[in-house]
Model the fold of this input.
Amino acid sequence: MGWKTVVIGTECTVSLTLNRMKITIGNEYQNIPLCDLDTVIFSHDRITMTIPMLSKLVENNINVIICDSKNDPIGIFQPFNNHSLVFKQLNKQINWKITRKKKLWKFIVEQKIQSEIDVLDLIYEDCDELETLIGYKNSVYNDDQTNREAVSAKCYFGKMFGTKFYRDDKNDVRNFALNYGYKILASYISKCITARGLLTQLGIHHIGESNAFNLTYDFIEPLRVIVDVWVEENIKDSFSVAQKQELIELLETKIYIDKKWMRLKDAVEDLIDSYIGFLNEKSDDILKIDYSKGIRYGGE
Done:
């Protein structure tokens, strides 16, 4: 498994040479072994890439993210068949029991609200919102029929970023940073889902007909606070290139899960396996993240 996240943010040519990614800028070049790569982010509108190179990245299940002219992630590449039993896995996914899906969504919403409680408790000495959020968590029903997820998010964001903060405010740079971080997380979750022979389109709760990542955005919910806390601590009036790089490196963050500290990339793998195991009726045990112990940014 690769470990490097490479951001290509300048005009260059990217080609395949002896199972290595060759990046050529003018008369200079750099070769990176494909086996070292975990994620490659193309963040410049004058990058030229050969088809053999792109094919090899997808073939090796390397996370490939494409950014627009504003350096905002707008898409990822996914392989058609990167699991030896893809039909068997897909058949299981299509036949997941409704009761099982509803129970898992209830668990995910509870975990998300608990994550909001934990990080607010860590950041603020006096937080009246905690009692409200605890009430929301304790009143989540199967499939979150009363939409506790949405009302808790409104309460949580109001405390985290102020009562005048709105998630749909396109003029607030914090929203741009949040969306950027969420997309980085979503791209990695999607990679893990497809590596298990599943379709990101078939969610357990999200069912948007035009959404190719319904399952991804089901599974991302308990992880969003990792981005939220970083943005609260680092973003005020601007969102620089250096800060984007820091957000990309959030995948190296360590969180406390299954009674131990784990790198976020590894934790996502285990978390998804836990969710899928529950949906496939292999186990009733679902992993929980404990944010009350903190979040270790930078892999510290």
